[in-house]
Amino acid sequence: xxxxxxxLLCLFCFSACKSTKNASKPSKRSYKSAPTRSTNxxxxxxxxxxxxxxxxxxxxxxxxxYGGTTKKGMDCSGLVVTSFKKEAIQLPRTTSQLAVTxxxxxxxxxxxxxxxxxxxxxNSRNVNHVGIVxxxxxxxxxxxxxxxxxxxxxxxxxxxxxxxxxxxxxRIL
Length: 173
Prior knowledge:
By secondary structure, the chain is of the alpha+beta class. It is about 30% helix and about 25% strand. The chain has five helices and eight strands, in the order H-H-E-E-H-H-E-E-E-E-E-H-E. The protein has a six-stranded antiparallel β-sheet. Strand 6 and strand 7 (about 150-155) form a beta hairpin. Helix 2 packs across helix 3 (about 75-85). The radius of gyration is 22 Å and the shape is globular.
Protein backbone atom coordinates (compact mmCIF):
# COMPACT_ATOMS: atom_id res chain seq x y z
CA UNK A 1 0.00 0.00 0.00
CA UNK A 2 2.80 2.41 0.89
CA UNK A 3 4.59 1.62 -2.37
CA UNK A 4 1.45 2.37 -4.38
CA UNK A 5 0.96 5.62 -2.55
CA UNK A 6 4.60 6.58 -3.11
CA UNK A 7 4.38 5.80 -6.83
CA LEU A 8 1.17 7.84 -7.18
CA LEU A 9 2.77 10.74 -5.35
CA CYS A 10 5.84 10.62 -7.63
CA LEU A 11 3.68 10.49 -10.77
CA PHE A 12 1.67 13.45 -9.56
CA CYS A 13 4.85 15.46 -8.87
CA PHE A 14 6.39 14.71 -12.25
CA SER A 15 3.21 15.46 -14.15
CA ALA A 16 2.78 18.76 -12.28
CA CYS A 17 6.32 19.89 -13.13
CA LYS A 18 6.09 19.96 -16.89
CA SER A 19 8.69 21.99 -18.69
CA THR A 20 7.66 25.29 -20.22
CA LYS A 21 10.21 24.89 -23.00
CA ASN A 22 7.45 24.76 -25.61
CA ALA A 23 5.72 27.87 -24.33
CA SER A 24 5.52 30.58 -26.93
CA LYS A 25 8.21 33.22 -26.69
CA PRO A 26 7.47 36.88 -27.34
CA SER A 27 8.31 37.90 -30.88
CA LYS A 28 11.38 40.04 -31.52
CA ARG A 29 9.22 42.10 -33.86
CA SER A 30 8.26 45.12 -31.85
CA TYR A 31 5.96 46.80 -34.36
CA LYS A 32 3.06 44.71 -35.55
CA SER A 33 2.08 46.98 -38.42
CA ALA A 34 5.14 45.91 -40.42
CA PRO A 35 4.05 43.02 -42.68
CA THR A 36 5.57 39.58 -42.22
CA ARG A 37 7.32 37.80 -45.04
CA SER A 38 4.91 34.88 -44.86
CA THR A 39 2.08 37.05 -46.21
CA ASN A 40 4.20 38.61 -48.95
CA UNK A 41 4.89 36.68 -52.13
CA UNK A 42 8.26 37.19 -53.79
CA UNK A 43 6.85 39.48 -56.48
CA UNK A 44 4.88 41.53 -53.93
CA UNK A 45 8.03 41.84 -51.81
CA UNK A 46 10.05 43.07 -54.80
CA UNK A 47 7.35 45.49 -55.93
CA UNK A 48 6.99 46.95 -52.43
CA UNK A 49 10.77 47.18 -51.98
CA UNK A 50 11.18 48.91 -55.36
CA UNK A 51 8.45 51.40 -54.51
CA UNK A 52 10.08 52.21 -51.15
CA UNK A 53 13.49 52.64 -52.79
CA UNK A 54 12.12 54.78 -55.63
CA UNK A 55 10.45 57.08 -53.12
CA UNK A 56 13.59 57.28 -50.97
CA UNK A 57 15.57 58.25 -54.08
CA UNK A 58 13.32 61.29 -54.58
CA UNK A 59 15.07 62.73 -51.50
CA UNK A 60 18.56 62.28 -53.03
CA UNK A 61 20.54 65.46 -52.39
CA UNK A 62 18.24 66.75 -49.63
CA UNK A 63 20.34 68.28 -46.85
CA UNK A 64 20.63 66.62 -43.47
CA UNK A 65 18.40 67.97 -40.72
CA TYR A 66 18.10 66.29 -37.33
CA GLY A 67 14.50 65.11 -36.94
CA GLY A 68 13.70 66.01 -40.55
CA THR A 69 11.24 64.07 -42.68
CA THR A 70 10.70 66.40 -45.67
CA LYS A 71 12.56 67.77 -48.69
CA LYS A 72 13.55 70.74 -46.51
CA GLY A 73 15.74 68.38 -44.46
CA MET A 74 15.97 64.71 -43.59
CA ASP A 75 17.75 62.55 -41.03
CA CYS A 76 18.58 58.86 -41.50
CA SER A 77 15.65 57.36 -39.58
CA GLY A 78 13.33 60.01 -41.04
CA LEU A 79 14.25 58.80 -44.54
CA VAL A 80 13.46 55.20 -43.58
CA VAL A 81 10.18 55.99 -41.81
CA THR A 82 8.98 58.34 -44.56
CA SER A 83 9.87 55.89 -47.35
CA PHE A 84 8.13 52.93 -45.70
CA LYS A 85 5.14 55.08 -44.75
CA LYS A 86 4.54 55.68 -48.49
CA GLU A 87 3.68 51.95 -48.64
CA ALA A 88 1.48 52.21 -45.49
CA ILE A 89 4.10 50.51 -43.31
CA GLN A 90 4.34 52.14 -39.90
CA LEU A 91 7.79 52.01 -38.30
CA PRO A 92 9.26 53.48 -35.13
CA ARG A 93 10.86 56.90 -35.56
CA THR A 94 14.30 56.38 -33.99
CA THR A 95 17.26 54.39 -35.23
CA SER A 96 17.58 52.50 -31.95
CA GLN A 97 13.93 51.41 -32.14
CA LEU A 98 14.31 50.46 -35.81
CA ALA A 99 17.33 48.31 -34.88
CA VAL A 100 15.06 45.90 -32.98
CA THR A 101 12.20 45.88 -35.50
CA UNK A 102 11.78 43.14 -38.08
CA UNK A 103 14.03 40.12 -38.44
CA UNK A 104 17.82 39.93 -38.31
CA UNK A 105 19.39 39.07 -41.69
CA UNK A 106 22.92 37.98 -42.51
CA UNK A 107 24.64 40.68 -44.58
CA UNK A 108 25.35 38.08 -47.30
CA UNK A 109 21.59 37.58 -47.69
CA UNK A 110 20.34 41.18 -47.75
CA UNK A 111 17.80 42.15 -50.38
CA UNK A 112 16.47 45.43 -51.70
CA UNK A 113 14.42 47.14 -49.00
CA UNK A 114 16.32 45.66 -46.05
CA UNK A 115 17.75 48.03 -43.46
CA UNK A 116 21.45 48.35 -42.65
CA UNK A 117 22.52 49.64 -39.23
CA UNK A 118 25.79 51.32 -38.33
CA UNK A 119 27.68 52.52 -35.29
CA UNK A 120 29.51 55.65 -36.41
CA UNK A 121 30.70 56.91 -33.02
CA UNK A 122 34.33 56.08 -32.24
CA ASN A 123 34.87 53.09 -29.95
CA SER A 124 31.16 52.31 -29.81
CA ARG A 125 29.03 49.51 -31.21
CA ASN A 126 25.79 51.34 -30.37
CA VAL A 127 23.67 51.72 -33.47
CA ASN A 128 23.14 55.37 -34.46
CA HIS A 129 22.72 55.30 -38.26
CA VAL A 130 20.44 53.45 -40.69
CA GLY A 131 20.07 53.09 -44.46
CA ILE A 132 17.88 51.20 -46.95
CA VAL A 133 19.44 48.62 -49.29
CA UNK A 134 18.94 49.78 -52.89
CA UNK A 135 20.99 47.14 -54.67
CA UNK A 136 22.35 43.77 -53.59
CA UNK A 137 24.27 41.03 -55.34
CA UNK A 138 27.12 38.76 -54.32
CA UNK A 139 29.91 40.92 -52.90
CA UNK A 140 28.07 44.21 -53.51
CA UNK A 141 25.59 46.10 -51.35
CA UNK A 142 24.44 49.66 -52.06
CA UNK A 143 22.21 51.69 -49.73
CA UNK A 144 20.52 55.08 -49.48
CA UNK A 145 20.82 57.07 -46.27
CA UNK A 146 20.97 60.60 -44.88
CA UNK A 147 24.55 61.50 -44.08
CA UNK A 148 25.17 64.35 -41.62
CA UNK A 149 27.86 65.77 -43.90
CA UNK A 150 26.33 65.29 -47.37
CA UNK A 151 22.60 64.77 -46.84
CA UNK A 152 20.63 62.03 -48.57
CA UNK A 153 22.95 59.97 -50.74
CA UNK A 154 23.70 56.49 -52.01
CA UNK A 155 26.78 54.68 -50.68
CA UNK A 156 28.33 51.24 -50.93
CA UNK A 157 28.83 48.96 -47.95
CA UNK A 158 32.30 48.15 -49.28
CA UNK A 159 33.48 51.72 -48.63
CA UNK A 160 35.98 51.53 -45.78
CA UNK A 161 34.05 53.85 -43.47
CA UNK A 162 30.74 51.99 -43.83
CA UNK A 163 32.33 48.54 -43.87
CA UNK A 164 33.91 49.06 -40.45
CA UNK A 165 30.87 50.86 -39.00
CA UNK A 166 28.39 48.15 -40.06
CA UNK A 167 26.60 46.42 -37.16
CA UNK A 168 23.59 44.50 -38.52
CA UNK A 169 20.94 44.13 -41.22
CA UNK A 170 17.22 43.69 -40.61
CA ARG A 171 14.27 42.77 -42.82
CA ILE A 172 10.97 44.59 -42.39
CA LEU A 173 9.09 43.36 -45.48
